[in-house]
Amino acid sequence: MFLFVLRKIASNRWKVLCLLAGSILVVAMLSSIPIYTNGTLQRLLVKEMEQYQLDTAFYPGYYVVDAQLKFSGSDTRANYMKRVGDIALRTPSDYVHAPATTYGRILEMGSIARKVTNESGAESKVAVAVKNVQGFEQKVEILQGRMYNDAIVDGVVDAVVTERFYANSDMAMDQIYDIYTTLDSATPLFRIRIVGIVKPADSADLFWYQPEPALNSNLLIGTSAFTELTSTPVGDKTLARAIWYYAFDYHQIRVENAETVLGGFQRQSDEYFSFNSSNLASFPLATILEQYPEREARLLLTLAILIIPIVLMLVFYIFMISQLKVQSELNEISEFQSRGAKRGQILRIYLLESALLGGVSLLAGPPLGLLMCRVLGASNGFLEFVGRKALPLRIGTGAMLAALAAVVLFIVTTLVPVMTNARISIVAQKRERSRRSRRPLWQRLFLDVILLSVSFYGLYAMKKQLDAISVSAVSIRADRVDFLLYLASTVFVIGAGLLFLRLYPWLVRMVARAGNRIWSPSAYAAFHQVGQRDGQAGFLMLFLILSLSIGLFSADSARTINLHVEDNTRCLVGADLRLIPAWVKYDRSGNVIVENEMGAGVAAEESVVYHEPDFAVYSKVEGIDHATRVLNKAKVGLYSKGNSVSQNQMFAVDPYDFAQTVWTRSDLNSYHINEYMNVMTAQPKSVILSTNLKDKLDVNVGDSVTVTDRSISYEVVVIAFVEYWPGYTPRVILPDGTVRENSLVIANLEYVFRYTPMEPYEVWMDRQDGATDRIVYDSIGANRIRTSNILSANQDIVEMKNDLILQGTNGMFSLGFIVSMLICAIGFLIYWILSIQGRVLQFGIFRAMGLSQRSIIWMLLTEQILLSGVAITVGLAIGKISGSLFVPLFRLVYSAPDQPIPFRVTAYAEDLGKILVIVGVILVAGFLTLARLILKIRIDQAVKLGEE
Prior knowledge:
Largest sheet: 10 strands, mixed
Oligomer: single chain
Shape: flat
Low-confidence stretches: 597-603
Number of strands: 25
Strand content: 15-25%
Structural class: alpha+beta
């Protein structure tokens, strides 16, 4: 059977290669999800641990067991220490799965002292600390004297100390001191002598879990001496503390082992605690890892949601090619049946064939998925790729399991057409051909109506959740969104495509009947062919509709998400650059106020005087087109008609310059920002209020409002209410997670300064096209402009684009678009090639009846227009409709309560242009291929009526 299957594959190599291409793509797409997820989280984990080390100056890979040995009981401290140490020495590497670059143990003695004599001759005792650091001898540099002798000689213990200890102590080199167990004891436990002064050979060495400052108060002795001193009943009571520590290379900690690391550390921590509640096990890396299982689940869900439509399209492609392949092999299947082959034997032949292709896909798919993930990591937007540091990607267990699941899906998909045709005998096949085909099963089950109903329910549920966000101002996590919502767009596309296929044959027949007297024979044959209920043609049309709709939906989704992120960032900053100058403070006498490090230096803000610096200097900054002054005050009160609102934000602006400088969008408010600024220029007393103040103050346009700024009050007139404004955040998320509304007042700066003293203002700047932040920053320095902070919209956007989840989203949309177009081209060509090969007899008959090759080619061109052209047009239309209906779904994930502007569906004409160009190339290539095949047909080989 195996050789038979190989010969069968060789005889159908083009069809098999098309199936294999689809199988490899499915395996690659599914395996790319765990590959990219692990690579993304791995980079994030390393970054977080590096940042932890920078913030805390503590190596996060330290695994530390700290046993406090101060307890009462029948057990000795040495025996207790040994039992705790046995657990610590049960190498944590077994569950950390990373090499321990360093292992160390620190033992400390307590409750010991030495005698000292003061100037008057009176004796007293001073507590001392004796410590043993295992491996200490190889990690230090001797500055003076020698290293200690590890053995006790003549009852004297050698010790070394640090420079700081020796400088701060009254102990002398080579002098022997008596050490007592307690401050009351009269008999010394042992004697000690300082023989050397040392320092760490490399203070950055991870061996120094306790750095040099922690050693500055200790006498350091050898391991053998320490063990001997604490082995007696009296010495055992001095054993105070034991520390075991490992330093793991956190760069080699794999994020997929997070749950194993957390579980293993928790088990060992419980063991330590069961001995004594004072035992402490610490592992900063485990604390950092705690959030990663949830992050992994969220990222997996996000990528899976984005990839589902693409995988469905690929499965549909595989099914379509399998169906065409099986249809072309019906004679062979019927012959098997007629010669006694059972259905199970036929299925085993095709199962073996699919398994062989699946095996090849299992080998080739994951490496292709790895390559796709490199594309994801380099994504900077939709179909935009930049050079970034490569993600730490590898093919792990999760990727292979996903690949195996994809292979199983491929095998099942390819066997479905075989199972439906495995019982057809030659007689049944001839009978079926002579009959008018029944309606497809999906039409009889009204699958199109069911799918559209499901999608509309998803649309209804989505709108309910969006309304809930609008009312509560609380965002919804991606993993808490109803999974049906993510499938709704794909279900809608399939349902709409099936509904079109239900109606289209009737439409074609009506057109054909209407022009029955004017159609040429070739056109009539084309209408007749398309008007039949041909399942294969329906598959092609549905495939084209699905692939183009998904491609266009991916493009619209990616553009919407990216533009939403960029617009929110620009609106949050307010302009290209937002500079906060460093103003000089003066007192009432004109003297400069110098603040100390704590910010103090002035009794009250009212006693501070500011002198406005020369604003003209900003016109000299290279790369800047416009600059404007913006007084940004956080606590301004408003009063009108007995109503008052305190704690309002105020932007006092120069209207003309402000309109020239800031970022805005025409759809945010009722009028363009220039119109608001024109009114404010003509009426300096006017103000613009945020919409939420309309009801709070019970005011309308034209009403007067009193502004209170500390002890100063002045009257203004309301000219408009706005929902959004550059630099204004309507809602603020408080530390406890609640959302607070923010209110805004926009006033004329010169009018405000008539009533209030000069105050520090911000400078907002509009950068010239092509000018970089570096050019502007260098020019600011060259003009000696003192600043306390500069915000850059471009830098914030770059930071947002570097977000690993957004990169994955962009990359997946880009890959989805590319794969959709690629599969569309392959599926289109394969269908027509197989269709032409299956209709050779028909074309031969047409030629024998007198139709020229030109007429046959014209007939095929008409068929292409009626099938492919119409399907492409409908696919693009459905894609546009699904985008406008379902792209707002991403607002559930990408629109947070504190974002300054609303989510807006965006579509770029250039994306549609790219699709049209690709589709045009596909159509032209397909038509040329078909024409070439037709020209090769020979009548004497095509007309074989005797065989029919």
